[in-house]
Amino acid sequence: MPIIQSVKIKAGSPTISFRKPNLKDGKDIWSLVKETDILDLNSSYSYILWCDKFADSSIVAVKNGEVVGYVQGFIHNTQEPTLFVWQVVVSEAARGEGLATRMIQALLKRTDVAYLEATVTPSNLPSNGLFQSLAKKYNSTYEIRRYIEAEDFPSVEDEEEEKLYRIGPIK
Predict the structure, then answer these.
(1) What whole-number distance in Å separates Cα of residue 145 and Cα of residue 109?
(2) Under a CB-based contact definition with an 8 Å cutoff, are residues 54 and 60 in contact?
(3) Phi/psi of residue 10, nearest 5 degrees
(4) Which helix (H) or strand (E) holds 30?
(5) Where on the phi/psi map is residue 162: left (φ > 0), alpha (ψ -120 to 50), or beta?
(6) What SS3 class is residue 53?
(7) Alpha carbon distance, N-terminus to C-terminus of the chain
């Protein structure tokens, strides 16, 4: 797999490289999401499949041969090509260094889309901040719309509404 971008996070720290995920990354991504205990954990099969079938619209961050970050996305091929980000995960050891932002920026550069979308629960303050800061970085407007209500889920006790962020145009 070719490396898209390599960045040093801190002087003297190991390089973190960004690349397309591959089928073999699926199990590591599943473990990474499971360790967060925050994100919805999908089946291991779904991550393996996603890494194979949607690699062009997703990205992994690798440090010392270990997956430390992942952005799961897909592209809507509508009038205005849009990257929909489904999940963003960064290992605890790699947090606080802007890795989520850098992964999304590298993915946006690679996919050449006009808009970025994601759904975020109101209580997920880090993700809300991430998408608002991305809008500022790209000097783009963003909208936050009602999207999926709590009652749309099978068990409203366990689910929070999802707001839809739409950022763009990405310049």
Answers:
(1) 25
(2) no
(3) -135, 155
(4) helix 26-36
(5) beta
(6) helix
(7) 27
Q: Which two tokens stand for residue 159?
A: 């689910």
Helix (H, G, I), strand (E, B) or coil at 159: coil
Give pLDDT, residue 156: 58
Question: Scanning the structure block, which residue is given the tokens 């089928």?
Answer: 23
- Angstrom distance (rounded) from CA 92 to CA 12: 19
Q: Is 2 exposed, middle or buried, given 0-12, 13-18 or 19+ CB atoms closer than 10 A?
A: exposed
Peptide bond into 154 cis (omega under 30): no
* The predicted structure's pLDDT at residue 9: 42
C-alpha distance from residue 43 to each of 13, 31, 46, 49, 136 (Å): 33, 11, 5, 10, 34
Per-residue tens of pLDDT for the chain, all 171 residues: 344 444 444 444 568 999 999 999 999 999 999 998 788 899 999 999 999 999 999 999 999 999 999 999 999 878 899 999 999 999 998 998 899 999 999 999 999 899 999 999 998 899 999 999 999 999 999 999 999 888 888 875 677 889 999 999 997
Is the separation of the CB atoms in 61 and 94 below 8 Å? yes
Bridge partners, residue 16, by sequence: 7, 63
